[in-house]
Specification:
Distance between the termini: 56 Å
CATH superfamily of the domain at 27-172 and 236-278: Vaccinia Virus protein VP39
Helix content: 25-40%
Radius of gyration: 19 Å
CATH architecture of the domain at 27-172 and 236-278: 3-Layer(aba) Sandwich
Number of helices: 10
Largest sheet: 11 strands, mixed
CATH class of the domain at 27-172 and 236-278: Alpha Beta
Strand content: 25-35%
Shape: globular
Structural class: alpha/beta
CATH topology of the domain at 27-172 and 236-278: Rossmann fold
């Protein structure tokens, strides 16, 4: 038992393990995540409906969204942004590896006769011959990727964009990093049964890496017949560090905002957004 507790509380190296698929493709947890997505009043898997509507209005204006605009939405989930942008005339491609979310998004697109192509795939592996005017990665997905994965994604964005194309994404800030604290908690059926329909014991270890500006929420879920670990990594950024990654991938940063609804940039904001153009 002591050795098992040692393993539960062990601190890994930054981004040593990648378990995103365990969260988004598991039959039970993907159902929980979709319910969070579709709850219009909360900011969990997606932001609340009022913010999304305001964000889409700003994106439509900022990028002149219309019938000749092609958009790629990486990590599209159940298509909350894709649906609204398609209603404004855009030709949208949504990429996500949650089968449940993609199935829901396809149902909505078919019912409302929208021009959206949904691809059920890990966006790290996604390739296409299409070229887009705008690439989106919203809800701080970029922060969940390791430095190598982020470089791969930016290179991919550069390949799939038209010469005049742009990227819009958001990230967590250093102000938010300063608010995070290391902790260890234990609870029966942690998060109200989020991890399994069966009885389980959940351990949460939050590790903070000050030099790398990374936080890990490490979940260990112990059931009667199995034990599994889920690693939720988050990278936190200063604007100049994020800009450096874009420049190295062949982009020029056009502007920073406090969110993807165009609020003026405030260094104290817990998140911020960037628009970058292909050089």
């Amino acid at each position: 038992m002591f050795e098992e507790l040692e393993r539960i509380n062990e601190r890994p190296e930054p981004f040593q393990f990648y378990t995103a698929s365990d969260l988004w493709t598991d039959e039970h947890t993907s159902k929980q995540m979709l319910s969070f997505h579709l709850n219009e009043a909360i900011d969990v898997s997606s932001r609340n409906a009022a913010f999304i509507n305001r964000s889409v209005e700003w994106i439509t204006s900022e990028f002149n969204i219309g019938s000749d605009c092609k958009i790629a939405d990486f990590g599209c989930g159940p298509g909350l942004y894709a649906t609204l942008l398609a209603k404004r005339g855009a030709n949208v491609t949504g990429i996500d590896f949650s089968e449940r979310s993609i199935a829901y998004a396809k149902e909505v697109a078919a019912r409302e006769q929208l021009s959206i192509s949904y691809v059920k795939q890990n966006y790290l592996a996604f390739e296409t011959e299409d070229r887009f005017d705008l690439v989106l990665m919203i809800m701080c997905d970029f922060c969940a990727l390791s430095p190598t994965q982020r470089q791969e994604m930016l290179n991919k964005f550069h390949r799939v964009l038209k010469p005049s194309g742009s990227v819009l994404l958001d990230v967590y800030s250093l102000s938010a990093f300063e608010q995070r604290q290391e902790m260890a908690t234990y609870e029966a059926n942690q998060l109200d049964g989020f991890w399994s329909p069966n009885k389980y014991y959940g351990f949460l270890n939050t590790f903070k890496y000050d030099e790398e500006k990374v936080v890990l929420d490490k979940y260990t879920v112990v059931e009667s017949d199995r034990t599994r670990k889920v690693y939720n990594w988050l990278q936190y950024f200063a604007p100049e560090d994020l800009e450096r990654e874009f420049v190295e991938a062949g982009f020029s940063v056009k502007g920073f905002y406090s969110d993807v609804a165009g609020a003026p940039y405030d260094r104290k904001s817990s998140e911020f957004a960037v628009i970058a153009g292909r050089v």
